[in-house]
Each structure stands twice: as C-alpha cells, then as structure tokens.
Amino acid sequence: MKRINEGAWSTREAHNSLMSSAPDTYRRIYAAAQRIPPGRVATYGQLAGLAGLPRHARLVGYALHVLPPGSDVPWHRVVNAKGRVSPRANALGHEDLQKQLLRREGVRLTADTIALARFQWRPRR
Question: What are the DSSP calls for 7-59, one per residue?
Fold first, then answer.
C-alpha cells in the first residue's frame, strides 16, 4: 500500500531501502505488519507481540510513523485496542485517509469504531 506522498522510488526500492536502514526492531514490526491481510486489522499491542516485542505498542506507533513515502507496509491496518483509528498530533488528514483505506478493503466502521471481534486478524500459529 502506498503512503500519501509517494516519491519517485519504486515500491521494491523503497522496501529494500527501508529494510536496510531501519533498526532491527522496526524491521520486525514492519515484517509483522506485512502479514496483516486486506480486510483485517491488528492492534498496536498485537503487532508488538507478533514482532516479538510484547508490551511495546507505542514502539509500533513510532515505527509506523516514520515509514518513508512509497513504503508498502500496510500501516492503515493497525488500530488501537478499542478498534479505533488513533488520532495524530499533526493535522494532515491521516486519520481520514486510514479510514478510507480500511473501508476500501471492506472493513466496516460504526461510529468510527471497528468491531474487532469481526475484523481483527487472528494469525494461525
């Protein structure tokens, strides 16, 4: 999935650059996020656990925040533990974009909340 300000890099170039320059913990988070299928969501805490970083939900947020333009990491599929899109401090409209991308994949938001019982990704072990 492309970010808002997609640069001139191809998705493969951006991914390779991201993976070579990101700290190991971020690479683990991005790899876990890549596994979330379209039409499903994961929580920040869930993604932290899948990346082998239990109790580091905020770190997941930081890692997703610094994704470069052109990244194919599906950042929009990560929501908070209440099934809501987390507000951002900047007023760039990312929350609206995230909701739009989720709806496009078939994720239903009711009063800005996603029914995690229905849409949360449950990976097979």
Answer: -SS-HHHHHHHHHHHS-HHHHHHHHHHHTSPTT-BEEHHHHHHHTT-TT-HHH
Please write the tens of the pLDDT for every residue from 46-79.
Answer: 999 999 999 999 999 999 999 988 899 999 999 9
**Domain 11-119 part of CATH 1.25.10.10:** no
- What does the alpha-carbon distance between residue 60 and residue 30 come to, in Å, rounded to a whole number? 9
Residue 114 structure tokens: 């996603």
Domain range annotation of the chain: 11-119
**Continuous segment of H or E residues that includes residue 42:** strand 42-43
Q: What are phi and psi of 113, to 5 degrees?
A: -120, 140
Each residue's pLDDT tens digit, 5-46: 444 445 455 445 545 556 899 999 999 999 999 999 999 999
Is residue 33 within 8 Å of 47, Cβ to Cβ?
Answer: yes
Q: Which token pair is 47?
A: 């993604």
Q: For residue 56, what is the DSSP state?
A: -
